[in-house]
Predict the structure.
Amino acid sequence: MAGRTPTSAPPSDRRPAYRHVPSRRPPRRTPDGTIAGVIGGVATVVVLGVLGFSLFGDRAPIGAITGSYREVAVGRETATDNELYATGVLTPVNCAPPRLEPGGASMRRFMDALSDCLDASWGSQFAKAGLRFDVPARVFWRDAGRSPCGTYPSPGSSAFYCPANNTMYVGVDHIVATSGDEPLENFAVFARVVAHEYGHHVQDRAGILLYGNRLMEGADPLGRAEASRRIELQAQCFAGAFLGAERATLPMTRDQVAAMIEDVRGRGDEHLPPARRDHGSGRNYAGWVVTGFEGAGVEGAGVEGAGLAVCNTWTVPASEVD
């Protein structure tokens, strides 16, 4: 896999990362105000990743863990050799969400239409693998509320995936505010957020998220952080795969893609202590979304091993997920 090197250093005014909360028991507040799920007695914050740049030459969990699903035995091969990796590129579903206009109603319509596309896209991909797929629930909020994974909004966050009830939570107004008030015409910035959260649901349904969360349970702080990064960066790649597959009807100009990459690259966590680096550097956070966009989202992309196999973050060296 090509190295993921950004075209420039991440901006100093870092944008907040998003979150995925792998919670099995009622969450608690951590000292920094984010919501943590308690897994096997270990508090773990898994923040949603955001990715980097390679598109123009420079390479820069689980759904509900309930009932019998909780008891399903998963081994390392669930993540390293998952059936989804052999299904090739995503099949386009001709996604054409409505144009974004000012106001929450427009953003809600955009996210609903985009989520319908994600349902169809990933449902088709799971069918290729002969795997069962259930779509996630959606909560697109404007007012504060509570989920099984904690209250929302939380400081600096606009979106998270709650595995306790298989639900994506996205703030209709917060998604713009936490992007630094990105212009609405750069819709890819917002589409990536939704597609990333959906990527965690994909991991859930495929068993990958369950494996990753269990891996974190038995690891030391550095091991937990690395496992979290492999989860988050794969969700980034899955988001890129979807956007790449829909490029014909969800067109993104060079400038729009550049805005998306700059946004995710600015969310890197290389400034944090090693044990808290649970999403990845700006270089890799951006690079994995581009890997999906270029290699898993379009037939004949000219990428060796093109298809969802390029999103396998579980077998690459640690340097690819730092």
Remarks:
- Residues 79 and 208 are 5 Å apart (CA to CA).
- The chain has a mean pLDDT of 79.
